[in-house]
Specification:
The strands form 3 sheets. This protein has a 5-stranded antiparallel sheet with strand order 2-1-5-4-3, with helices on both faces. It is built from 13 helices and 12 strands. It starts with 9 loop residues before the first helix and ends in a 6-residue tail after the last helix. Helix 1 packs antiparallel against helix 2 and helix 8 packs antiparallel against helix 9. It is of the alpha+beta class. The protein folds into 3 domains: about 140 residues, no CATH class; about 140 residues, Beta-Lactamase (2-Layer Sandwich); about 200 residues, Heat Shock Protein 90, CATH 3.30.565.10. A hairpin with a 5-residue loop joins strand 11 and strand 12. The protein is about 50% helix and about 15% strand.
């Protein structure tokens, strides 16, 4: 245990101090006798006191006292007449040796006290440093699980423990505890062998620390984590029993200093657990607020999107039912065309909602087949030409020659292309073309929105794929909005004044679901999607799909091509 480990093996240290003191006295006595310093009694006594001071300051009170007594005997035997006897024939000699003994004992006590104060200061410094490191572990991350792992690791390190386990309440059953974070210093240590679930439960219920000696090698501390009247969990710590038996009182598993330090670390861990709980509660509140916000946005958006086609359908039906007006066949066809288009619009809205819910639930699984992407685009454009989406726009396509087949879900990729073209049509200048480019390209290095080279440098290895670009000639999305336009229900709200040269406005109808669905579908295909500004005005929406260039793909390419749905 780091802050108290300096007292481990104290008997051995006392013996070392006594041995060094004895050798010091013997060597000093030999030198003084050789050079005949017997007549300088007080100088000899001063030299002996220095030896006592050194031993007491380095090894503590008991070695210092022992060396004081040895010095007293040595001074009496070798330097007080008559020599080589413990008999003293003069009062001055008695005063000298007794004065030395008293001075040596006082010096030993003062030096030992100074040593103890120094050790306490060092211990306090170590404890402060350890607590600071624990606080840093708590503050260094906002993720609760990661933070608890760091705290447990720090506790294990500061105690020099073999294993540390953090037990917290199970969410489904608060009365039971399970390991939430652990750190094992040695691989052979197993939780089932050294830790007992019933002891953990007992510590939790009684709110009292339990110390157990497993055998002569191991001991375990179970510490309750308390926050006021509430018990948050239990900290279980396994340590090797490296402290000598003589340093622990009978019936004790940990010394009082060790128990104090264990409790300090347990209290600090309790604060970390409480902080982790606050992090999770804050995250839950934030997610609930975000869910409530998205619900409000969804209701507002969908209600608006539903109201418009329903109003158009109701108006058309009212016109057809009006018996006071005789409609020409062409007028009837116009009303029916409105109903058909608005019904398609409602279908797209409902389809978007269903797709978005599947993406959120993680159940959107592509049913892949091998397709020639320009053919999918051609079929999609034929279908869109019969809708109001391209009423004011025409689409020009640029396909690179000899494009390879790509493994995709036809319906999902058709949905992506539809949404991208619809988005381009909404925000593009009427009568201006929408350009759709398809080429083969390596995987982009970044999707930051800035234009980048798709050429590979010499020696660079990047997976190949199909790059699709949908280019409009509208106002263009502001640079700061490029990363956000693929978020759920997010729409760029930027009005352009009537005096603007473009005369365009971003105040158009929409649910903010289309591009979010595109992102979910492309990512489900292991692809990338991003947006960037066009140099001369407008926006370029880009997605990249990987090619399967495995031998199996190449061999089965011709036989696996699926026919495009009609």
């Amino acid at each position: 245990m780091k802050p108290t480990r300096k007292q481990t093996g104290q008997t051995k240290k006392d013996f070392t101090g006594l041995l060094l003191g004895t050798l010091g006295l013997a060597l000093t006595t030999l030198l003084l006798k050789v050079f005949q310093f017997e007549q300088y009694l007080y100088n000899v006594a001063l030299v002996f006191i220095v030896i006592v001071l050194l031993i007491a300051s380095q090894y503590g009170l008991w070695p210092g006292l022992a060396v004081s007594i040895l010095g007293f005997l040595c001074l009496n035997y070798f330097f007080i007449p008559p020599y080589y006897t413990f008999f003293i024939d003069s009062g001055a000699g008695v005063v000298a040796v007794l004065g030395f003994l008293i001075a040596a004992i006082i010096t030993s006590q003062i030096a030992a006290r100074a040593r103890r104060k120094t050790q306490e200061a060092q211990l306090s410094q170590q404890e402060t440093a350890a607590l600071n490191q624990l606080n840093m572990a708590v503050l260094s991350t906002a993720q609760a699980e990661s933070m608890l792992r760091k705290v447990v690791q720090q506790v294990n390190q500061h105690l020099e423990a073999s294993a540390t386990l953090l037990y917290l309440n199970r969410p489904d059953n608060p009365s039971l505890l399970e390991v939430q974070a652990s750190h094992f210093e040695e691989k052979e240590i197993q939780e089932e062998k050294f830790f007992r679930q019933e002891t953990v439960q007992l510590t939790f219920q009684k709110k009292e620390a339990i110390f157990i000696k497993l055998d002569n090698q191991w001991r375990v501390a179970y510490l309750p984590l308390l926050a006021g009247e509430e018990t948050l969990g239990v900290l279980a710590i396994l340590l090797k029993n490296s402290i000598e038996v003589s340093s622990i009182k009978v019936g004790e598993v940990f010394r009082s200093e060790e128990q104090r330090w264990l409790q300090i670390l347990a209290n600090q861990t309790a604060l970390a657990v409480d902080h982790a709980r606050l992090i999770e509660e804050t995250a839950l509140v934030a997610s609930l607020k975000e869910a409530d916000r998205l619900k409000s946005v969804l209701l507002a958006s969908v209600s608006h999107e539903l109201r418009t086609p329903l109003t158009s359908i109701k108006t058309a039906i009212a016109g057809l039912k009006d018996e006071g007006i005789e409609l020409e066949p062409e007028e009837q066809r116009d009303y029916l065309e409105v109903i058909d288009q608005e019904a398609d619009r409602l279908t797209r809205l409902i389809s978007n909602l269903l797709d978005l819910s599947r993406i959120e639930a993680g159940t959107l699984k592509p049913q892949k087949g091998l397709y020639y992407l320009p053919e999918i685009i051609g079929k999609t454009l034929e279908r869109l030409a019969r809708t109001e989406i391209l009423t004011d726009h025409f689409v020009q396509t640029r396909f690179e020659e000899d494009l390879p087949l790509v493994s995709v879900d036809y319906l999902q990729i058709e949905q992506v292309i539809t949404n991208l073209i619809e988005n381009a049509a909404k925000y593009s200048t009427p009568s201006k073309p929408i350009t759709l480019k398809v080429s083969q390209a390596p995987k982009p290095l970044t999707t930051s929105g800035r234009r980048q080279s798709i050429k590979r440098t010499e020696g660079e290895v990047r997976p190949m794929g199909i790059l699709v670009e949908v280019i409009d000639e509208g106002i263009g999305v502001p640079e700061a909005e490029l990363e956000r336009i693929f978020d759920k229900f997010y729409r760029v709200e930027l009005l352009v004044t009537p005096t603007s040269k473009s005369g365009l406005s971003y105040n158009v109808a929409g649910s903010g679901m289309g591009l979010a669905i595109c992102k979910g579908i492309i990512e489900a295909h292991a692809g990338l999607i991003w947006a960037r500004r066009r140099i001369y005005g407008g926006t370029i929406l880009v997605f990249w799909l990987p090619l399967d260039l495995s031998p199996k793909f190449t061999q089965e390419k011709d036989s696996a091509i699926k026919a495009l749905p009609e």
